[in-house]
Amino acid sequence: MRINSAMILAAGLGTRMRPITETLPKPLVEVAGKPLIAYSLEALDRIGVTSIVANVHYLAPMLTKWLKDWPGAEIAISDETETLLDSGGGIVKALPQLGPYPFLVLNADTFWLEDPDAGSDNLARMADQFDPAIMDIMMMTARLDQATGHTGAGDFTIDPEGRLARYRGSGDPVIYAGALVLSPHIFDAISEPKFSLNRCFDAAIESGRLFGAPMLGHWLTVGTPAAIGEAEAAMSAYLNGSASSTGHRPNR
């Protein structure tokens, strides 16, 4: 299906990234010469999504100015300066700007490199595969061997039909790779202003309506200053490896 709008979750405090984030919001921390949030915006631009909302909280004026100066789509701001609403509450606050139809949600502080042999971008495939008749949420997932910067055993398991369940120590774990397609009706029964998206994940699992979209490429999360160099080295290795094996580099 056609996805016309997207939310970028950009209101986090970035405390683990100190001292860099003492003067800079985490979405503006640069990796390989580019702010983290720029990777999400470029991914949306590649599939033609131009209606974008980003929430802001920590060092909001700095991030808001950067977003206003972004040369691509015009980005609406959902201001959480007064109260940080967590991942789910932040989306609900922005729903009037996002519209009534399924939309994308991206994390501002994780990103991925596309597989040059895939034929289409990960977000485009998610939009094509999302079926609101049987799905409430489609989540991009990555295997552990596709990830740099992730710590922990994994988040979910995926069955042959694509349905996700929480990883409980058995089966092959996958990581939530920071991108979703979701139907806004999943928030209808929630009245609290502040809550985590994990609540929606669990509800969708219970009803069999949380599906995974295995990503093609390499996923990166950068949680600390020391992890920046690790991410840049992994990016260089992936891009150079892809170029040598295919004759061209993946989109960045």
Automatic annotation (TrEMBL):
Record keywords, A-Z: Nucleotidyltransferase, Transferase
Residues forming the Nucleotidyl transferase domain are 6-147
Give the matching Pfam families.
Answer: NTP_transferase (PF00483)
The reply on keyword Nucleotide-binding is no
The protein's matches in CDD domains, at most eight in alphabetical order, are given as:
NTP_transferase_like_1
What name does UniProt use for this protein?
Answer: Nucleoside-diphosphate-sugar pyrophosphorylase
Q: Name one GO molecular function term.
A: nucleotidyltransferase activity
